[in-house]
Task: inverse folding
């Protein structure tokens, strides 16, 4: 891929992400677009976004894979790993060799190695002094992302963060907490809908999630709205 083509694709990624920032936008959909773009346009194997609720506990909101092993790995990172360190410090955390991480990360390191990941990058989701979470990029190969890719990842995360916070509510902590809690609640409903579809269709959770997303896109509906319909049995997919 030439630099010119790659730059054009990144511009398109930013445009796609910006297009989601409209009135009544779906926060989970914005974050899903973010992680998908990171794997498509950057040198990442898997990606996930974890955000903090009012107790500053990080929870996985969007991931490029819904496999339970990946979800559990992301949560390990939120407990003791690059994500929680990134969130706490507000700085990028890059580990070019998973096994070189600190001993306190041991459960995360062991799980990552078992799943074939050899390096990781965590990028803060922040706007000024407001930190809401972290973007986690897992890579199958050792080494670090290029400085250009790190800047691109941070910029993509910044666009998504702005969409979630909005300038007009930066000073309204209650509104921010409510919006983050709404995203967490949407995730719970989506998890339930995945389980329902997987059971009904005899499919994997990844396949069930793909079905939910495809239906939402094709029918111009919010992902959370489709999930709610599936759970309440008011919508058949």
Result:
């Amino acid at each position: 891929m030439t630099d010119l083509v790659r730059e054009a694709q990144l511009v398109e990624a930013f445009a796609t992400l910006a297009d989601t920032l409209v009135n009544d936008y779906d926060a989970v959909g914005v974050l899903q677009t973010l992680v998908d773009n990171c794997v498509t346009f950057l040198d990442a194997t898997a990606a996930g976004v974890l955000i903090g609720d009012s107790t500053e506990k990080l929870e996985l909101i969007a991931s490029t894979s819904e496999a339970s092993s990946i979800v559990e790995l992301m949560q390990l990172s939120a407990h003791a790993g690059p994500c929680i360190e990134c969130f706490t410090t507000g700085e990028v955390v890059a580990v070019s060799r998973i096994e070189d991480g600190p001993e306190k990360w041991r459960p995360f390191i062991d799980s990552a190695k078992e799943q074939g990941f050899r390096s990781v990058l965590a990028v803060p989701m922040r706007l000024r002094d407001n930190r809401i979470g972290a973007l986690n990029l897992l890579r199958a190969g050792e080494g670090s992302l290029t400085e250009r890719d790190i800047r691109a990842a941070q910029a993509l995360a910044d666009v998504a963060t702005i969409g979630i916070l909005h300038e007009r509510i930066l000073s309204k902590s209650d509104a921010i907490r409510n919006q983050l809690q709404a995203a967490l609640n949407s995730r719970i409903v989506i998890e339930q809908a995945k389980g329902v579809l997987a059971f009904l269709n005899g499919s994997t959770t990844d396949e069930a999630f793909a079905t939910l997303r495809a239906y939402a896109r094709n029918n111009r509906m919010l992902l959370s709205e489709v999930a709610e319909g599936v759970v309440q049995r008011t919508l058949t997919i």
DSSP finds nine helices and five strands in the chain. The two ends are 38 Å apart (CA to CA). The chain has a mean pLDDT of 86.
